[in-house]
Write a structure and sequence with these properties.
about 90 residues; mainly alpha; Non-ribosomal Peptide Synthetase Peptidyl Carrier Protein, Chain A; 3 helices; about 0% strand
């Protein structure tokens, strides 16, 4: 398992969907994953990977996820993750 400190992830200047997809690629290496596919239902992401994802999001996007953000629906799909990131970055910038 790759740790966050070993993460080669993502060139700056790419959008949130690209960054999230690049980070998650280690969990679904040989699978195609659409932005609307439920990663938990497909058993691509488990609870440990989800926590790693939370840490990645906070660091990569300079946002803080509050307990209310840690709802499964915010992490089921790449689309849901990106929507949460965009919501948090907008409210952070305001």
């Amino acid at each position: 398992m790759t740790t966050r400190s070993e993460d080669p992830v993502v060139a700056t200047g790419e959008g949130p969907a690209h960054k999230v997809r690049a980070f998650l690629a280690r969990y679904f290496r040989n699978q195609e994953l659409r932005d609307d596919e439920d990663m938990f239902a497909k058993k691509i992401i488990n609870s440990v990977a989800a926590m790693d994802l939370v840490l990645f999001i906070e660091k990569q996007f300079s946002i803080r996820l509050e307990p209310g953000d840690l709802k499964l629906d915010n992490f089921r799909t790449i689309g849901a993750i990106v929507a949460m990131i965009e919501r948090k970055t907008r409210s952070h910038a305001a």
